[in-house]
Amino acid sequence: MNKLIKAFTKESALVPLIAILLGLIVGAVIMLLGGYDPILAYRSLLGAVFGHRYDFGETLTAITPILFTGLAVAFAFRTGLFNIGAEGQYIMGMTGATVIGVTVHLPWYLHAPLAIIVGALAGGVWGMIAGYLKAARGVNEVITTIMLNWIALHLANYIVRQFLLEPGKGRSYRVDDSASVTIGWLSRFMDDARMHWGMVAALLGVIFFYYFLWRTKQGFELRVVGANPDAASYAGISVSKSVVKAMFISGALAGLAGVFQVLGVFHNQVISAGHTGHGFDGIAVALLGGNNPLGVLFGAILFGVLSHGAAEMSFGANVPPEIIRIVIGSVIFFVAAPGIIRWLLKRAAWKKRKEEAI
Amino acid sequence: GAKNNNDGGGAASPSQSPSASPSESAAPGQTVDGKDFKFAMVTDVGGINDKSFNQSAWEGLNKLKADTGAEVKNLESKEASNYLTNLNKFVRDGYNLTWGIGFLLEDAVKESADKNPDARLAIIDGEVQAPNVASIKFAENEGAFLVGVVAGSMTKSNKIGFVGGIDIPVIKRFELGFLAGVAAVNPDAKVEINYTGAFDKADLGKAAAASLYNAGADIVFHAAGATGNGVFNEAKERNKNASADKKVWVIGVDKDQSLEFGDDVTLTSMLKRVDEAVYRVSMEMIEGKFPAGQVTTLGLKDDGVGLPDTSKANVPQDILDKVEEYKQKIISGEITVPTAE
Amino acid sequence: MDAATIGHMLNTAFVFSTALILAALGGILSERSGVVNIGLEGLMTAGAFAAAVAAYKAQEAGLGAASPWIGVLAGAIFGVLFALIHAVATVTFRADQVVSGIVINFIAGGSTLYLVKLLFDGAGDTALVNEVFHKIKIPLLSDIPILGEGLFNAYPTTYLALILVGAIYYMLYKTAFGLRLRSVGEHPGAADTVGIKVLRMRYAAVLMSGVLAGIGGATIAMTTTGSFSHNTISGQGFIALAAVIFGKWNPLGALGAALFFGFAQSINNVLQLFDFSSHVPPEFIYMLPYVLTILVLVGAVGRSRAPGALGEPYSPGKR
Amino acid sequence: MEQAKTVVEMRGITKRFPGIVANDSVDFKLRKGEIHALLGENGAGKSTLMNVLFGLYQPEEGEIFVNGQQVVIDGPNKAIKLGIGMVHQHFKLVHPFTVAENIILGSEPRKWMGLAVDKKRAGEQVDRLSKQYGLNVDPYAKIDEISVGMQQRVEILKTLYRGADILIFDEPTAVLTPQEIGELLVIMRNLVAQGKSIVLITHKLKEIMTIADSVTIVRRGKVIDSLPVAGTNPNQLAEKMVGREVSLKLDKKDAALGEPILEVDGLVVKGRQGLNALNGTSFVLKRGEILGIAGVEGNGQSELIEALTGLRSVAGGSIKIAGAEMAGEKPRTISEAGLSLIPEDRHKHGLVLDFPVRDNMVLETYYQPPFNKRGFLDYKAIGKHAEKLVKDFDVRTPSIMTDARALSGGNQQKAIIAREVDKNPEVLIAAQPTRGLDVGAIEFIHKRLVEQRNMGKAVLLVSYELDEIMQLSDRIAVIYEGRIVGEVKPSETNDRELGLMMTDYKQKQGGPDSEQAD
Ligand SMILES: Nc1ncnc2c1ncn2[C@@H]1O[C@H](COP(=O)(O)OP(=O)(O)OP(=O)(O)O)[C@@H](O)[C@H]1O
Ligand SMILES: Nc1ncnc2c1ncn2[C@@H]1O[C@H](COP(=O)(O)OP(=O)(O)OP(=O)(O)O)[C@@H](O)[C@H]1O
Ligand SMILES: [Mg+2]
Ligand SMILES: [Mg+2]
């Protein structure tokens, strides 16, 4: 608790806040240059997120997958691995859940859990491939995960087209209702927003992330390997095993993002022409959150709020929604380069002093 | 079956000539007052300037605005989970009719319609079973048959190419119709099929076209969205220095692509009158004749698909006559064009 | 498979590879100086955007065949502008290089589309440029079997890329500038103590990577798409990054890697011409380039060794 | 005229780092043609002072005069122009480059109108310089492929190539073998003879007595004294630098030998290029003794340690700990069988620098009770344990939550020793346990090793420093080309004999078995 209080009073908490402010200012300036009204735009944005129960609910739904992929990327980072493959693991998670949701028929208390587990495993295995290739053959995980993203896309399309396709449609059959993880009463309360258990699971993911890495024996091993693999092997920790394990867990987290999109949001899987971007957004979220579980949570919220609100900005103020990517990019930029903020603050202080002197 | 019929009062049947522009077909014209009406459309990730499908739909709505004074608006989706939220934005804002453009939005339209029974929605290229939704589909196979006739008649090498986006039912209809059309006029011609796996990768389209042309094809029909831009670029590239007898052709899709890429490479295009359909159905909404709950398939009969007038530039009249002949046979039911394997 | 087919495949491979080669060269320069560059994707995006817009404007202004070259120039300039952000963040302010690279991708993706919408009345893509590059047959050389069709009937940008491979190889390994650049990436402390301006070298390298990746993006707009939209650059930057690593941070290696990717892509289309391909699900054919890449990496002996100080910001006071 | 002879004068230099005054108005004078030693505890501020002189740090206060002129040294470039060169404690060499490339870097000979580096001329220049000062390096060898001693010569050549007259050596001997040290001292004399002036930072009093003309002693950033070497002695120097009396002599009672605990027999281990790094190594270590492994670096010591600890696969032979076969076992199994290691490279192998001291203290035992409870770590127990070790071993750290990176080298080493000794091992391998440490820290560590032995444990000491081996060991085994070529008792041998055995054992044939110590 003490730590938490300290965290908010330190410069480390001030920097993200200033970074967000600066990011929004950058966005505003660009909107002004483009001839748009930033005040109206930001008001629409906030209105879109907090103005209505429905929008609030949908914002939560938008946060869920990127919270998972953000955790996935951050987890790998913590163990010394750069997982650019959250996208592919996400797709495999989707596919695993769809396969179970469509082809297996079970009572709800078995069906949904099975679909979740299989989806997470599928994502995990997909991550593990990169981990194994790194551990056994020394192949750089950056390359393999990039390649595996594309392979996952086409493999998933194949599976959907070959085994799950609803005739005449470009997508799978609908998953059984017994596999659905929507929360009916909450959706009704939220004015039909697509509420599902994924958000809860993602929050559990945050807690798992923290507890596993900092409280368990295995997490300790992974962190040692991440921080100094040489020292790890001197301490009797198997580096290869750790790498595989870490990529499995990271992949499973990303896979869960896909699982809950299928079971909670779409209820089917389409033959997809390209990547969703959730995996890549996960990298941004992880970085925004400094690879800390709590930071990732805040990062995902910020990211989710901004991107969900972007549609309303273009709806209400006619601003191209791309502006939000510039805002998010700038925020990450200022978070990553606190030196710039300090420099700006110093200049501001210096100027003030000069003015006072005159 | 019932769902494939447009017998809901015949309201959705456009009745003009194939190459008619929306303005000519707008029979009621300025006399209709739509000032109190609000229309909207939601696209997938492509956006309204995709030079084909979405753009066509948006043109239809803008025409409506010009003719009736109705308010129109669009939103493009950044990813699949935005489809529903974007549709709902309009539905909740009291829009009279909200369009989902493309089969990808089918499920979202269904869900929005179920949750908002008082709202009116419509879907292009999809089929939604709901009392407050109008579904508009196209018989792409019929149109593709006709361009197949053109290709089969005009190929010199007896090799023809087809570049598809992704192997999904809609595109399959293009492929099968095209194959049938070629086979009808030129059983000796061989059609090489190449699916690129994407609708948005011009580089893949270019490479696919290159391999088809290298393999001897002189005409390539694409049904691949923006991937098809690569097909055009490859053809242009080849024609730049080629002698007249080595000239290659592209058959465009959705819109009259000769307007974009020029007559020198565009042999003809397989039109899909999304603009017309959007305009029509919206107009019916204003007139109080919205075909709610109906699935309308627009084929040759309804001029929902067909060839543009500009085909004259490259396709000789005798072949166009043949095309017209086949068109009548399809309309009369003498020929049935396959829709699926 | 006959010689002509192989020649055609090689030709297609070069079309794919050109942008990858250029961007990978950019990646090499940046990373050889010790600055990780996952912003290649964004730099290429900026380059493709600028090229499409500038070439379009040039074409409108009646500049004709010079238009694509103006596009390439604009691509280089835009690439540098975005690379400058990366350089300021990572070199001056010592921001995490990975983070900064991701930021470049974000901002480049967002701002180019924003500008497209501003410039083209809300459209999601630029107007089509008709004045694009055309393949140039080199007399005599293009008559060589296989290679003639494969290599000597190519876009001017392909020749440019190949020349740059040689030039950058020479620069890195034969000139004093190259020696210093590499030393800065291996051991900035060592470079500093012999009086090399570490930060200045890194700026130079990162900015050059902006030029090259920008040109790389421009070649895509000026040869394959003829326009710019949200997916003109979709993943090529990451593949180029893979080529940097696969090619062991060496220009020749990266050339080989980029060609390999291009070739694997072109196999794709050729395979579909064979009758047996109708028995293979197309998805497996699409996967092929990526699967092949992984297999080759697994088979390749020897781990690649990254520049010693890659990813480490340099501050003179730190040990 | 004293002024004329002074080449460098630093006056009132103050350099602060966050939370510490590294140099507190330090005065320092270097005369032409002298070797001037800088002496002080770890963290006293020696390197900082010299980094200021070399322009790497800017002092907050103070003035610098070079050859009587006041100068501002705002970067190494300036220092180089002033004729100052520095051989850093941690070499500043670009490893994938060749020797010549490293030397010419930054001022390369050119050809083709400056376009290309003239590598041939570079090689010739390096060759010439190397011969002139008797340095004997191969200009075309890669840094990766040459020994540490050679690397240091490259550093020296770098300064000479740039025309340095004032050379700074920061702990040059910490990483060298006795042979290399001897050669370095010759080189330094050579340099002085050719008119260069040298600042020598070292912790080894013996070296100061041997080679230096004057010595300046620093403690906690302040100069304590500056005096000619003639007329002082090691004990006096040690006292001045630590501020208390230090016993340079180790009290050690006779060994009480127990049964054999570590038996290595015919050990064969593959090295880098498929050659055998260990070639049938055999020795026996008994309870209650310290066995010193003496040898020139690169004769299989690293491989021996890695094989013993399970980090490297064994191609043949056997390793028995307390009678149980351990060859080919996993590191953890071996560790649990009672083997502990103080690794040679504390930053790379011994510590996770970005982890707090607390976590580093359980790096090998985190999975055992009471630290691990059913898969979960008990940080209370771990913290308590760390507090105890920090106290018992006098690890100077602000808190157990301080990152290991922030500790000084001596304290990092103490932390490692605390951890390893606390495991209560049957066999403790200490590899270079005091490299780079000051006399105070060395004294502490040596005492701990002897303590272990007195408790009936076995200690295997691997060191390249003959002094340390001679002082600590009960028995010395000499390793040469992957084989134990002789065993002697320290009381029955001397530096010269050991040195000979280490370099060419054939002269002492008949040794290994007949000399068996009992
Ligand atoms: N870059 C730095 N940042 C912060 N503090 C530093 C830095 N360098 C040195 N210090 C501090 O300055 C003090 C003096 O360090 P210095 O390296 O000069 O010691 P030293 O006498 O060379 O020690 P050693 O014998 O271990 O080499 C140390 O206590 C350390 O805390
Ligand atoms: N980045 C840093 N920030 C703060 N203090 C530092 C930093 N690097 C080193 N120090 C300080 O420098 C001091 C000495 O460190 P140094 O590495 O010189 O120790 P050392 O005894 O010379 O060890 P070794 O010889 O093994 O390197 C320590 O007290 C440490 O606090
Ligand atoms: Mg020091
Ligand atoms: Mg030291």
Automatic annotation (TrEMBL), chain A:
<feature type="transmembrane region" description="Helical">
    <location>
        <begin position="114"/>
        <end position="133"/>
    </location>
</feature>
<keyword id="KW-0472">Membrane</keyword>
<feature type="transmembrane region" description="Helical">
    <location>
        <begin position="195"/>
        <end position="213"/>
    </location>
</feature>
<feature type="transmembrane region" description="Helical">
    <location>
        <begin position="56"/>
        <end position="77"/>
    </location>
</feature>
<dbReference type="InterPro" id="IPR001851">
    <property type="entry name" value="ABC_transp_permease"/>
</dbReference>
<feature type="transmembrane region" description="Helical">
    <location>
        <begin position="12"/>
        <end position="36"/>
    </location>
</feature>
<keyword id="KW-0812">Transmembrane</keyword>
<feature type="transmembrane region" description="Helical">
    <location>
        <begin position="323"/>
        <end position="345"/>
    </location>
</feature>
<protein>
    <submittedName>
        <fullName>ABC transporter permease</fullName>
    </submittedName>
</protein>
<feature type="transmembrane region" description="Helical">
    <location>
        <begin position="142"/>
        <end position="160"/>
    </location>
</feature>
<keyword id="KW-1133">Transmembrane helix</keyword>
<keyword id="KW-1003">Cell membrane</keyword>
<feature type="transmembrane region" description="Helical">
    <location>
        <begin position="89"/>
        <end position="108"/>
    </location>
</feature>
<dbReference type="Pfam" id="PF02653">
    <property type="entry name" value="BPD_transp_2"/>
</dbReference>
UniProtKB/TrEMBL annotation, chain C:
<keyword id="KW-1133">Transmembrane helix</keyword>
<protein>
    <submittedName>
        <fullName>ABC transporter permease</fullName>
    </submittedName>
</protein>
<feature type="transmembrane region" description="Helical">
    <location>
        <begin position="6"/>
        <end position="28"/>
    </location>
</feature>
<feature type="transmembrane region" description="Helical">
    <location>
        <begin position="68"/>
        <end position="91"/>
    </location>
</feature>
<feature type="transmembrane region" description="Helical">
    <location>
        <begin position="35"/>
        <end position="56"/>
    </location>
</feature>
<dbReference type="InterPro" id="IPR001851">
    <property type="entry name" value="ABC_transp_permease"/>
</dbReference>
<feature type="transmembrane region" description="Helical">
    <location>
        <begin position="284"/>
        <end position="302"/>
    </location>
</feature>
<keyword id="KW-1003">Cell membrane</keyword>
<feature type="transmembrane region" description="Helical">
    <location>
        <begin position="203"/>
        <end position="222"/>
    </location>
</feature>
<feature type="transmembrane region" description="Helical">
    <location>
        <begin position="98"/>
        <end position="120"/>
    </location>
</feature>
<dbReference type="Pfam" id="PF02653">
    <property type="entry name" value="BPD_transp_2"/>
</dbReference>
<keyword id="KW-0812">Transmembrane</keyword>
<keyword id="KW-0472">Membrane</keyword>
<feature type="transmembrane region" description="Helical">
    <location>
        <begin position="154"/>
        <end position="173"/>
    </location>
</feature>
UniProtKB/TrEMBL annotation, chain D:
<protein>
    <submittedName>
        <fullName>ABC transporter ATP-binding protein</fullName>
    </submittedName>
</protein>
<dbReference type="InterPro" id="IPR003593">
    <property type="entry name" value="AAA+_ATPase"/>
</dbReference>
<dbReference type="InterPro" id="IPR017871">
    <property type="entry name" value="ABC_transporter-like_CS"/>
</dbReference>
<feature type="domain" description="ABC transporter">
    <location>
        <begin position="262"/>
        <end position="506"/>
    </location>
</feature>
<dbReference type="InterPro" id="IPR003439">
    <property type="entry name" value="ABC_transporter-like_ATP-bd"/>
</dbReference>
<dbReference type="InterPro" id="IPR050107">
    <property type="entry name" value="ABC_carbohydrate_import_ATPase"/>
</dbReference>
<keyword id="KW-0547">Nucleotide-binding</keyword>
<dbReference type="Pfam" id="PF00005">
    <property type="entry name" value="ABC_tran"/>
</dbReference>
<dbReference type="InterPro" id="IPR027417">
    <property type="entry name" value="P-loop_NTPase"/>
</dbReference>
<dbReference type="GO" id="GO:0005524">
    <property type="term" value="F:ATP binding"/>
</dbReference>
<feature type="domain" description="ABC transporter">
    <location>
        <begin position="8"/>
        <end position="245"/>
    </location>
</feature>
<keyword id="KW-0067">ATP-binding</keyword>
